[in-house]
Design goal:
Elements: H1 2-32, H2 39-56, H3 64-91, H4 100-121
Helix pairs in contact: 2-3, 2-4
């Protein structure tokens, strides 16, 4: 019975993550009429920035909640600036272009962010 309850909890957590991803895609598509394939990669960059900052400040003597708060604030700032930059440089010039051009650009931004993350944070 304990295993069953744990699997129910695991399913709820995984389903909640899927719902958040779907909500993000829906909101972005509803606003700019573009499926942003780089959405997950932007979140990845935020998580890596937060992790890097928390790791660098781990020996500073700050409590865990402070590290988490600082990491969260920095991740929000980095993701906001990254999103704004991508929208300004890659997506906005293609607003009136045929539907395929922004789609290919979104896939390209996804690959670019993945590659840059592997260069900065190493693949392992």
């Amino acid at each position: 019975m304990e295993t069953f309850i744990q699997q129910i909890i695991n399913g709820l957590v995984l389903g909640s993550m899927y719902a958040l991803v779907a909500l993000g895609y829906t909101m972005v598509y509803g606003i700019i009429n573009l499926i942003n394939f780089a959405h997950g990669e932007i979140l990845m960059v935020g998580a890596l920035v937060s992790w890097t900052l928390a790791t660098a400040l781990a020996d500073s003597g700050l409590p865990g909640w402070a590290l988490m708060g600082i990491g969260l604030l920095c991740a929000i700032v980095v993701c906001s600036v990254l999103n704004f930059t991508i929208e300004k440089i890659a997506y906005r010039p293609l607003r009136n272009a045929p539907r395929l051009a922004p789609l290919i650009t979104a896939m390209g931004m996804s690959l670019l962010l993945q590659t840059l993350a592997m260069i900065v944070w190493k693949p392992n």
